[in-house]
């Protein structure tokens, strides 16, 4: 009985999250997050450059 309730709650959370991510208002933010791995990293400053 308890395992069925837990399964139902997890299924509802999964479907609710999936529906939430299909919200058109989130598209620009999600597209920007999807491009993050493809962007070049900014060069790191050395400790000497940060003390100036």
Question: What topology does this entry show?
Answer:
Elements: H1 2-21, H2 27-35, H3 47-50
How far is the N terminus from the C terminus?
66 Å
Largest sheet: none
Which oligomeric form is depicted? single chain
**Given the structure, what is the number of helices?**
3
Would you report the number of β strands? Answer: 0
Can you give the helix content as a percent range?
Answer: 55-70%
Protein name: Cbb3-type cytochrome c oxidase subunit 3
InterPro entries: Cbb3-typ_cyt_oxidase_comp
Summary keywords:
52 residues, mainly alpha, 63% helix, elongated
Write structural notes for this entry.
There is one protein chain. The chain has 52 residues and is mainly alpha-helical. The protein has one domain. The chain contains three helices and no strands. The protein has helices spanning 2-21, 27-35, 47-50. It is elongated and about 65 Å long. The termini are far apart.
Brief digest:
This is Cbb3-type cytochrome c oxidase subunit 3. InterPro entries: Cbb3-typ_cyt_oxidase_comp. It contains 3 helices and no strands.
